[in-house]
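INFO  loader      accepted 1 record
INFO  loader      residues=69
INFO  predictor   begin
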Amino acid sequence: MTEDVVEKSEQANSKKMGWEAFVKQDVLNFMMTHNLQAITVDDGAGKKGVIKRTSKGDFSVQITSNEIL
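INFO  predictor   done
INFO  writer      dumping tokens
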């Protein structure tokens, strides 16, 4: 039974890293390519990513998720 819990936890971590990588790479690249000031993405299942350009020209990235365990 503990192996099932560990396996589910590893799958959740893998999905979370996949979402974070998507936001920090693909979405950020899209935003930079199209010279956008801000962009918000939502997967409809509780994960949300927000990227905003700061006044200094840097990018602020916020990633949130709601998980049901």
